[in-house]
Amino acid sequence: MPTAREIMSPDPTCVKATDTVLDAARKMAELGVGALPICGTDEKLKGMLTDRDIVVKVLGRGKDPGTCQAGELAQGEVVTIDAGAEADEILRTMKEHKVRRLPVIDEHVLVGVVAQADVARALPDPQVGDLLEALSAA
User: Fold this and answer.
1) Beta strands in 7-138 (DSSP E)
2) Mean pLDDT for each consecutive 10-residue tract of the chain (138 residues)?
3) Stated pTM of the model
4) Which of 35, 53, 60, 102 stands 20 to 30 A from 22 (CA)?
């Protein structure tokens, strides 16, 4: 079975916790991605910022994306996966936590992100179908 390191998108671009949501949205548009890891000044992973977070938690609540900081949207403990984790653990973690993107950690360092699309490219259709079903429910 492939590991997280083998199927991840490597070298993720972080948004700083102190960056504005507007700057983060511009970075997403520039990179053509729907999510960015949020990293603190200590370079440690604080969370993931998604395009949905921007719409629902910022724009939908009338907050100013030019003053709201990305770090304000990092909530709770970040769900991650070890770089050596096999596909079955990736699937289990994504299903259990209902996440479409998993930051990949190697020795406490962010080395990549496994996205739903990465899983779809790397695994057989039945496993991908199960994941899509689990993430789409509720």
Assistant:
1) 9-10, 15-16, 35-39, 45-50, 81-82, 101-106, 109-115
2) 91 94 97 92 86 95 97 86 93 89 91 88 64 55
3) 0.82
4) 102
